[in-house]
């Protein structure tokens, strides 16, 4: 490679990396619902649009919606009660709660903007409405925490950084670091959503200690061969239980 071409590539790489960091700084804002500073690139309207566009495909991946309208009505009732008794009511997000037909995958998740899902496999293991409130409150926490928004913004940042760094042969290092960064944020997001879920449960009149029961269900479902916490994007259920207990004491004292 000619020396002149190398210099050009180097300058381009430095410029792209600098642009990535400048844009990153400009995207920093304080989440009005959690008080945490985050890098955010999507408006609430964009979050809602992404969630609504993605919801049908996500449902299809899990066998569609559950056919029993009574179960779906219960999920709606508990979800809306949580929203109407918390700060979620005063946000621009449009909350919908979906019971998925999937009877094998124990899971619940939220899309940007308020689309929340729970599989029948998890729903059927819950012992009462309080535990259902714990699951749905946790998912509402992901929405208010803007976790998907933050993840999308992080992904764009690392894509830009890798593109620029590749011009100076550091692409692989930047990519690996980016993956580690996203992993750490994933654990924090789960713990933040657990704490918000406890708060929403208390505000709506549900027993927050039942969220501990949900953690035990998840622990039992994972079995004895579950991966250590440091190898997973989710905190170990035992660690989550301790944090949930702390949140219960915190918000009960505050109330």
Task: Describe the model.
The protein is mainly alpha-helical and 255 residues long. The protein has one domain. The chain is 64% helix and 7% strand. The protein contains 9 helices and 5 strands, in the order H-E-E-H-H-E-E-E-H-H-H-H-H-H. Strand 4 (108-110) and strand 5 form a beta hairpin. The radius of gyration is 21 Å and the shape is globular. Residues 72-247 form the Peptidase M48 domain. Its cofactor is Zn(2+).
Task: State the main characteristics.
mainly alpha, three-stranded mixed β-sheet, two-stranded antiparallel sheet, about 65% helix
Number of domains: 1
State which percent range the strand residues make up: 5-15%
Helix and strand composition category: mainly alpha
Based on Cα principal axes, name the global outline. Answer: globular
Brief sketch in words of this structure:
Its cofactor is Zn(2+). This protein has about 260 residues and is mainly alpha-helical. It is built from 9 helices and 5 strands.
Fold blueprint:
Layout (H helix, E strand, L loop, with lengths): L2 H24 L1 E3 L6 E3 L4 H18 L7 H16 L11 E5 L7 E3 L4 E5 H4 L5 H16 L2 H19 L5 H34 L5 H13 L14 H18 L1
Parallel strand pairs: 3-5
Antiparallel strand pairs: 1-2, 4-5
Helix pairs in contact: 1-6, 3-5, 3-7, 5-7, 5-8, 6-7, 7-9, 8-9
InterPro entries: Mito/Outer_Membr_Metalloprot (IPR051156), Peptidase_M48 (IPR001915)
Pfam families: Peptidase_M48
Family: Belongs to the peptidase M48 family.
């Amino acid at each position: 490679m000619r020396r002149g071409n190398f210099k050009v590539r180097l300058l381009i790489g430095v410029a792209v990396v600098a642009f990535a960091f400048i844009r990153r700084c400009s995207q920093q804002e304080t989440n009005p619902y959690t008080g945490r500073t985050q890098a955010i690139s999507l408006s609430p309207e964009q979050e809602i649009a992404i969630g609504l566009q993605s919801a049908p495909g996500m449902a299809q991946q899990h066998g569609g919606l559950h056919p029993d309208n009574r179960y779906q009505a219960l999920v709606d009732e508990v979800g809306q009660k949580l929203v109407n008794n918390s700060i979620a009511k005063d946000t621009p997000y449009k909350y919908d709660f979906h019971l998925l037909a999937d009877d094998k995958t124990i899971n619940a998740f939220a899309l940007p903007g308020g689309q929340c899902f729970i599989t029948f496999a998890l729903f059927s293991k819950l012992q009462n409405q309080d535990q259902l409130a714990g699951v749905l409150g946790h998912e509402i926490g992901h929405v208010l925490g803007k976790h998907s928004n933050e993840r999308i913004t992080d992904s764009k940042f690392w894509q830009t950084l890798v593109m620029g760094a590749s011009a100076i042969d550091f692409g692989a290092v930047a990519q690996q670091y980016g993956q580690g960064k996203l992993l750490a944020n994933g654990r924090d997001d789960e713990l933040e959503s657990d704490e918000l879920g406890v708060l929403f449960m208390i505000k709506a009149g549900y027993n927050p200690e039942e969220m501990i029961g949900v953690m035990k269900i998840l622990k039992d479902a994972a079995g004895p061969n579950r991966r250590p916490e440091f190898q997973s994007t989710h905190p170990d259920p035992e660690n989550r239980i301790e944090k949930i207990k702390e949140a219960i004491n915190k918000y009960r004292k505050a109330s």
